[in-house]
Amino acid sequence: MTRVCRAVEKGETQDFMKILVDARTNQILGAAILGAEGDEVVHSILDIIYAKASYTVTQRAVHIHPTVSELIPTMLADLAPLST
User: Fold this and answer.
1) Which residues, in sequence order, are CB contacts of 24 under 8 Å at separation 6+?
2) Where are the beta strands (DSSP E) in 1-84?
């Protein structure tokens, strides 16, 4: 959360967000959002999940600044395979 302007401005950077994406379908399978204003982020992720859209739909979206949601495109650009 140190990369989220809203979290930095509020001094709440100890929290985190993770998103799990299926490598084959590019669909978001789930997310963990622990922190202030996580409820704001959940809705944008849920919309993509229910639409069964590719994660790239939200990755390419422009999110309002400063909000916690604005980190989503950056997070999705940094996707990495899960280690086993």
Assistant:
1) none
2) 16-21, 28-34
Q: What angle do CA 7, 26, 78 make, to 5 degrees?
A: 40
| Residue showing tokens 């978001």 | 28
- In CATH, 5-77 is 3.30.390.30: yes
Comparing 25 with 5, which gets the higher pLDDT? 25
> How far is Cα 31 from Cα 22, in angstroms, rounded to an integer?
12
pLDDT on residue 35 = 80
| In the chain, where the domains are located | 5-77
d(CA 58, CA 46) in angstroms, rounded, equals: 11
Residue 11 CB coordination number (10 Å)? 8
Token reading at 14: 């100890």
Please give the model's pTM, rounded to 2 decimal places: 0.80
Residue 47 and residue 51: Cα distance in Å, rounded? 6
